[in-house]
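Progress against Task 2.4 (sequence-to-structure conversion) is shown through the following example record, which the project officer requested during the mid-term review.
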Amino acid sequence: MPEPLTWTLAVALILLGIAGSVLPGLPGAPLILLAAVIHKVYLPPYLSWWVVAALAALFVLDCLL
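C-alpha cells generated for the chain above:
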C-alpha cells in the first residue's frame, strides 16, 4: 500500500475512533487499535509493537468496563 494512502487511512480511522469515544454507535477503541495495527504493518519504523500492545491492553480494558 502506498505510504500516503496508509497515512490517510490510519488518520481517518483514528479520527473516527476518537469520535466513537464520545458518540454512541461508533466503536472507538477497536477503530483506534485497527489504525495502529495498519500503521505498524505498512509503516514499521514509525510505531513500535509496544505501542500496539498498550493500545490492545486499553482495548481489552475498555471491553471489560
